[in-house]
Amino acid sequence: MEAIGVIGMGAMGKGMVCNLLRKGYHVYAYDPSPDAKAWAKEKGAIVVESPQAVGSVARVVFTSLPGPEIVEEVMLGADGLYLSLGAGSFVFDTSTIDPATAKRLNQYGVEKGIYYYDCPVSGGPAGSAAGTLTVMVGGDEEMLPEIMDYLRAIGKEIFYLGESGSAQVAKLCHNSVVAVITAALGEAFSVGTKAGVDRHKLAAVMDKGSAHNRVLSVFGPNILYGTYENTVFSLDHMYKDLQLYAQTAREQQVPVLVGGTVAQMYEAAKAQGKGSWDSSAVCTVTEELAHTTIAR
């Protein structure tokens, strides 16, 4: 059976490990966390002690990491993955990072004969566990037929966006819209409940009307019941993505009028110590300003 590496076993990486094991691959896993290592070993993965060690045994590697700096360190650091990967290897970076870093890592890969793809995903931990993630792909189009089976091992909908960095642009745009809708839902439910309308009935109207959106089904339960500490996608991660989105928009000379305002709301919630809460906790900013609670 083919060896595949996984670097980063947070909520998303764990689902990838499980699905790759179910597909019959030998999974070589690395994460600095002792708990993550113990979990991987229990699931049947082979635990190694560095990114470089992963590259020495696998020609196909998935990474799932928190942000650009860590991704770059894992790829190019003193014990980095690129030190041991051979020519013809594939790296699928499912982290959400800035397009410029993705392009830079791709260029380093080109120089070594490594195919680097920015492959940010959407679908959350539940989608990762089920193997139904939406995978956005940026990189060398010529090799797509060869890599599709690997991507289908973790995802259901695979979208090729274009050259390196394109998938990161798509993911940042996607998450900005999710963030805006989440904040808008918090505002609308605050108005509705304060005016005496049952929040569940209001949600039902939105679900069947033109305001229907998937954000409501994913984050709605936390908003409607006030269970913001039940983290589906952390506020810290969404805040990071919004900063990367704003950076990308500035580089393209596009004003971020709506996204910028919403980003300030996430920053306010983060400053209140809610970074580890679900990203829907941005709704508490409106609740507090309006002196109301949606889940009442």
TrEMBL record:
Belongs to the HIBADH-related family. One of its GO terms (molecular function) is NADP binding. Residues 165-284 form the 3-hydroxyisobutyrate dehydrogenase-like NAD-binding domain. It comes from Brevibacillus antibioticus. Residues 4-162 form the 6-phosphogluconate dehydrogenase NADP-binding domain. InterPro entries: 6-PGluconate_DH-like_C_sf, 6PGD_dom2, 6PGDH_NADP-bd, HIBADH-like_NADP-bd, HIBADH-related, NAD(P)-bd_dom_sf. The active site is at K171. The keyword Oxidoreductase applies. Keywords: NAD, Oxidoreductase. This is NAD(P)-dependent oxidoreductase.
